[in-house]
């Protein structure tokens, strides 16, 4: 066990160093060291409680950080971009690792920075302690981590979507909002690609049939740059749900005014990403696992900020332009777009001096609606 403890401490500390130097050393070294450190941390956690006099306490803070790393540092990414978070976490790993090495050095009378074999002389296995520790890990630690991840996911979803997406113990919801100025209303109707049929019906039901216009979501592909369609029906079927239909057909009467972007408006990395997603969806719908894995290769070296600029911000501004045009002719303007677009669109609408009015909470699906793997 001396080797395991020392290997973990060295991997943990060195991973922190490589995280800080990743702009020069790349991501591979700290990813490999992180995976090894995580595996060794799990072994040490399994040993804790099973052996009397196990000298694990110097590693307590490092083990906590490793567990948090295993939880993807949730929910901090809701408040901080992931790259700065990884840099800060690398600094924390390095600082804790060095502090632990110095602590061991002082405790050993300055003879070593690592654990030595003498510390395991009185370390003996205990079956009764193993049963007690196993029960605590199985019935306390594991449920605690699951609850922590669920709470973090809920917080992140609500924070990052500005409340347009909400989740609780019953299921997933979106929040439809109205914005008013003078006699005009803008209806933000956040949608998702897969849901229950009832969700799409309820989403559009409050929209008046007269004096209304719908600005539908739907990127065109006039130059045929996509190699496959973005078809979510396979993913929806696997979950026991339905893919998003044409929402303009849910309400007869309102005029439709398309204003979305065309694929050719996007940068080459974004087009490559969309082709990768389309390939995965197509392969998944036919059960082609190899094809889905091959499509993942298109995600390498993707410039995240460029993709966000194309898929979110560029398209949001097209919607805003559509709203300004529609204001001249319609009393009600409906925007049934993906929930990821809603925070940016809302921000622009508020700049136009619209005031938030009524809201509706609509269930996307209940957890009990989801089909478990293997269910017919």
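Sequence proposed for the structure above (376 residues):
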């Amino acid at each position: 066990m001396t080797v395991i403890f020392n290997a973990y401490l060295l991997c943990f500390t060195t991973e922190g160093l490589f995280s800080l130097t990743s702009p020069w050393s790349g991501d591979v070294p700290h990813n490999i060291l992180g995976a090894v450190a995580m595996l060794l941390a799990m072994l040490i956690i399994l040993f804790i409680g099973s052996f009397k006099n196990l000298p694990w306490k110097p590693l307590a803070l490092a083990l906590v950080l490793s567990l948090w790393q295993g939880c993807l540092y949730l929910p901090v990414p809701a408040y901080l971009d992931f790259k700065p978070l990884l840099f800060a976490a690398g600094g924390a790993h390095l600082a804790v690792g060095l502090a632990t090495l110095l602590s061991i050095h002082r405790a050993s009378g300055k003879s070593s920075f690592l654990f030595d074999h003498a510390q395991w002389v009185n370390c003996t296995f205990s079956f009764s302690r193993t049963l007690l520790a196993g029960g605590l890990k199985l019935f306390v630690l594991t449920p605690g981590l699951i609850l922590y991840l669920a709470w973090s996911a809920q917080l992140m979803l609500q924070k990052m979507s500005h409340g347009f997406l909400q989740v609780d113990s019953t299921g997933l919801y979106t929040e439809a909002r109205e914005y008013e100025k003078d006699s005009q209303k803008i209806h933000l109707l956040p949608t998702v690609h897969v849901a229950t049929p009832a969700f799409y019906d309820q989403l559009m039901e409050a929209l008046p049939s007269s004096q209304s216009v719908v600005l539908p979501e739907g990127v065109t592909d006039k130059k045929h740059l996509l190699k496959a369609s973005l078809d979510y029906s396979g993913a929806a079927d696997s979950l026991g749900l339905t893919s998003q239909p044409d929402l303009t057909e849910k309400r007869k009467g309102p005029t439709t005014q398309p204003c979305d972007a065309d694929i050719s408006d996007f940068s080459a990395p974004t087009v490559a990403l969309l082709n990768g997603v389309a390939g995965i969806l197509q392969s998944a719908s036919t059960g082609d696992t190899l094809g889905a894995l091959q499509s993942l290769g298109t995600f390498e070296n993707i410039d995240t900020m460029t993709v966000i600029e194309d898929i979110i911000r560029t398209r949001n501004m097209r919607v805003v332009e559509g709203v300004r045009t529609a204001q001249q002719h319609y009393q009600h303007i409906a925007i049934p777009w993906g929930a990821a677009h809603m925070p940016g669109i809302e921000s622009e609408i508020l700049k136009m001096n619209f005031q938030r009015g009524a809201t509706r909470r609509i269930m996307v699906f209940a957890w009990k609606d989801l089909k478990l793997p293997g269910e017919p």
